[in-house]
Amino acid sequence: MTGFINNPGSWPQEGGTINAFLNPVFFPSLLHRMGAGVALIGVLIIILNLIPAWRKNDDQVEYHLYAIKWSTKLITAALLIQIPIGIIRIFAVRPEGQAMLMGGELTPIWLAGILAGLVPLVFIYFLNQIGLKLSPGSTVVLIIVPVFLAVWLMGITRSLERKTFSIAGVIDKQGQVVSFPAQIQEAGGSSGKPLFDRNCGGCHPGLAGNAAEKAKTRHPDPADLQKFLRDPRGQANVAMPPFVGTDEEIYLIISYLLDIPLDQIE
């Protein structure tokens, strides 16, 4: 799923697991997040060794100081790796996302994330080059907080890049389906199965019987089936809870039950 929610690539048009998995931002996002994860591991090592390193009566002070010094090198490498990968990722996002990042509404947040990542880099550089003293306070302010801030801001940027979508161009944040691969719709609305299982699977095909067979026999007309699903007791005196989802959701369920394309449902 890495990158898919921001840029599903050709999947909405062509479908296919490979197209979904190997979306345009898969590798850049995977490597960029890997770098962020490694930087956070370095921060965790510092946190675990920070206080013990300044206990004068601790016979393992040198060990803790070495662990902190090693973790600063780890953080430096992780942050430096993210720079070229982040640049590559920009060219892999959707045109809408590029416009938001390059001179658009997300540019300030994106730049703030970069600046936050530069703070620990500069501090660690001077720490190693001119022997700048490493104190608990300076470590927290100039390494730990900026790394967390940089990772958080980059995550916020990726989230806002989708704007009103949960999956860019496919499903909005209200759960409305905007675009689905043609073969999924032509296959009888198989995308409606998860909705059916979630809303109706508790009774069907158990004690309530096979819903698809009943729908095809008793309500073969999509409009009639829609009325029934909205008001089972009123339409057919059936003790079944009404479906209260959106029109798009009920269309998907009807498509699944009647095994017909979505475009045949009004």
Shape: elongated
Distance between the termini: 32 Å
Topology as a string of helices (H) and strands (E): HHHHHHHEEHHHHHH
Number of domains: 2
Low-confidence stretches: 186-190
Question: Helix segment count?
Answer: 13
- Give the mean pLDDT: 83
Secondary-structure class: mainly alpha
- Biggest pleated-sheet summary: 2 strands, antiparallel
Strand percentage:
under 5%
Spatially, the strands of the biggest sheet line up as 1-2
**Gyration radius, to the nearest Å?**
27 Å
- Total E-strand runs: 2
Share of helix among residues? Answer: 55-70%
Task: Provide a compact summary of the structure.
With 266 residues, the protein is mainly α. The chain is built from 13 helices and 2 strands. It folds into 2 domains: 11-170; 182-264.
Describe the structure.
With 266 residues, the chain is mostly helical. It folds into 2 domains: 11-170; 182-264. The chain is 64% helix and 2% strand. It is built from 13 helices and 2 strands, in the order αααααααββαααααα. It has helices at 11-14, 17-21, 26-53, 61-90, 95-101, 107-129, 136-161, 182-186, 192-200, 211-218, 222-230, 232-236, 247-258; strands at residues 165-167, 171-172. The longest helix is centred in the N-terminal third of the chain and has 30 residues, at 61-90. 30% of the residues are buried.
